[in-house]
Predict the structure.
Amino acid sequence: MNLDENKINEGLAECMVMFRDDMISAGVITEATPPMFMTEAILCAIQLAAIRWKPIETAPRDGTPVDLWHKSGFRQTDTWWDADDQCWSSVNDDSDFSHWMPTPQPPSTK
């Protein structure tokens, strides 16, 4: 796929304007909010989108550790798809999981 850098930049600029307008409408920021805060807000939104629960059908099946949500209301942490057994590593039956999300990063030790 050939990426046109100009088109990407134009698309990003358009998204920034739409995001800014939505944030102003929601009362989160004002017209006077510095652009740097907008960049930080967009980065936060991207990070939040990455850690939201996703349908189980989209879960990685390549051994990547994930957290699973069971239909009965509990979270199964640090599990992965076992390709040999064709099930999640911590259980024998994956039919009762509805969602997944990436495992969170550990806290900084600094």
